[in-house]
Here is the input.
Amino acid sequence: MGPDIAYLNGDLQPLAQTRISPLDYGFLYGYGLFETMRAYGGRVFLLDTHLERLYHSAEALEFPPIPSAGELSGAVTQVLAANGLKEARIRLTVSLGEGDMVPNPATCKNPSVLVTARQYTPISRETYARGYSTILSTVRRDSASVLSRLKTCNYLGGLLARQEARRAGADEAVVLNEKGMLAECSASNLFLVTDDLLYTPTVESGLLPGITRQTVVEIAGQLGIAVKVEELSPEALEKADEAFVTNSIMEIMPLTSYEGALVGEGKPGPVTLRLMAAYSRLVATGSTGLHACER
Ligand SMILES: Cc1ncc(COP(=O)(O)O)c(C=O)c1O
Here is the structure.
């Protein structure tokens, strides 16, 4: 492992000595936001899009001004360089910062900015070829809550769902909303393929609008695959020909079993494989090599 240098509020320092105030509202109340990003060959994929989501979320949570995009991307670059990382998993956390002991967000004047990064070894080819097994979580997303749509440090729902998956020996947990419709997974967005159409739940279903989700929708358009963003029931997953989950770290992961039953043929399907290949091309070259007209 490398030197493990973190960035906190303008300074690079050894992570082991990096300290946040015990009165930081991120710690006390989960009042914070984060972005998890992947660097390929030293370049952070879609960094600007991650920062846009962060600023949008900070506004929704009524944060005081946070450092500029130039400063935040500079912090990320510095952490990669200080740790000598090229293939990395990066976490940028912005919390509300220190405030009064009596809960009062107005007393927090200086948000804390923390950047950490670690070497990232991709998930094995065998796992992508086998696909993820999933269970249905008992955790529900509240489709009416803005919190379901933000990547906040209040991440308990996701962690509890993830633990349920681990206990069941599964790779991921599918999370429904309070109406019993599909929302997403513990730490990823969900897609289904049925009759060659690509389906994904609406943001209003109560999910984090993932950057990989959006990228997949765009790639599908370029490949001529029709995308339907709809309310979806768990039965749609049970009956799907193919399914997959997405996030910035694992990209596109086939979902091959759900609640002990195979999804489709129980192996990565043709549409999923096409999207995976196009995503890899986008990462490697900045383009899928296709345009909407080349169908
Ligand atoms: C709950 C949840 N949904 C979806 C995603 C995927 O988001 P992105 O594609 O922006 O990484 C994540 C990412 O970690 C997540 O935690």
Summary: The pocket of pyridoxal-5'-phosphate is lined by residues 36, 158, 184, 187-189, 208, 210-213, 246-248 (CB under 6 Å).
